[in-house]
Amino acid sequence: MNHTDEYGRAEVAIGRENWIAAALQALRTGGTEAVTLDALAASLSVTKGSFYWHFSGRDELLEELLQHWEAETEALVSAAMNEPKPLGRVLAFFEIVASHRGDIPDAAFFAWARRDPAVARRVDVVESVRTEFIRDQLIEAGLDHDVAQQRAEAGYLATAGWIERASRSHRAQSTSDFRRFADQLFRWLLEGIPVWIP
């Protein structure tokens, strides 16, 4: 459905997902400060009035961004679980993350969490889900709980660091670059597992 602007001209129909996509792009490039109605409306070539067909205000839009980010982790874990072997699931998880690192930017949510305790609590939950997923696969592969927990933390943090650097680096880094990095990392993390290659 098209709406009209303040002069009665028809505006191209802009849906809720369009506003969310524009907000994610703004978040990616400028953090939460860049997620303003004026900037988003300009990027979509519509008036601010059309925003209120979909959201009650900016806070609802920011909440939607958080929910999208949280849902992304659930989707990544679900996709990785399609692999038949536990270590294949871990590698698949990080490969999927690396190949989609620009879609929903972790770094922007981490920066937001530093300024907002409520967001920080939700970021903690997301990171716990990711780490526990890795830990559970390592346990299934044969490591005891404590060792698996330590290695899961190390593997997650090392990989998150690689992805963060790749997202801001001027050098193109591909999924194959990530696979080489992950292979070396996993040889250390999975020491003591008789057969670790997925």
Identify the strand order in the major beta sheet.
1-2
Q: Could you give a short account of the major beta sheet? A: 2 strands, antiparallel
Number of helices: 8
Order of helices and strands: EEHHHHHHHH
Structural class estimated from helices and strands: mainly alpha
**Helical residue percent?**
55-70%
Shape descriptor reads: elongated
Overall strand count: 2
Average pLDDT rating: 84
Rg (C-alpha, Å):
20 Å
Q: What's the quaternary structure here?
A: single chain
Describe this structure in words.
This protein has two domains: 3-55, Orthogonal Bundle (Arc Repressor Mutant, subunit A); 59-189, Tetracycline Repressor, domain 2 (Orthogonal Bundle). Helix 1 packs across helix 2 (37-44). The chain is an all-alpha fold. The protein contains eight helices and two strands. The termini are far apart. The protein has a two-stranded antiparallel ribbon with strand order 1-2. It is elongated. 68% of the residues lie in helices and 2% in strands.
Features:
single chain; 2 strands; Tetracycline Repressor, domain 2; two-stranded antiparallel ribbon; Arc Repressor Mutant, subunit A; mainly alpha; 8 helices; 2 domains; 198 residues
